[in-house]
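Re: weekly structure request thread

Next one in the queue (144 aa):
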Amino acid sequence: MQTARTRSKSRAKAEINVVPYIDVMLVLLVIFIATAPVVMQGVTVDLPQAQSETMNENQQTPIIATVDKAGQYYVSIDTTSEKMGSLDELTAYVSAQLQKDPSRPVVVQGDAQVAYDNVIQLMNALKTGGVKSVGLVTEPINSN
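Done, posted below.
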């Protein structure tokens, strides 16, 4: 009779321990939450306000050429933003992207504090680079 007792006590329980899986999932959740704000599109600029139309949701994501208040140039495509050293470099980069997809729209995003001349130079550089149409990014007018 004692042998039956020892046999039943020595059996291992066949259970799956889910605590390590929960720990791994929580660590992954923390990593995603920490990196989500880092993945933002483009460069933060203070846009001028104007009454304008919004882009259609059916349109492709545009190539965004940006000039910040320090006069630095950037190009944003989808979720990546590249700092450009000069207008020539920006023009070559945008032209190369448009050769891959000529139907992609191009928009200019200029900081509200930047000199008007910098935005015009950027638009002229895009025109000489073969961009047929350029849109301007603005903020809606505040009604207060």
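The chain has a mean pLDDT of 78. Strands lie at 63-67, 73-77, 80-84, 106-110, 134-136.
Next request, please.
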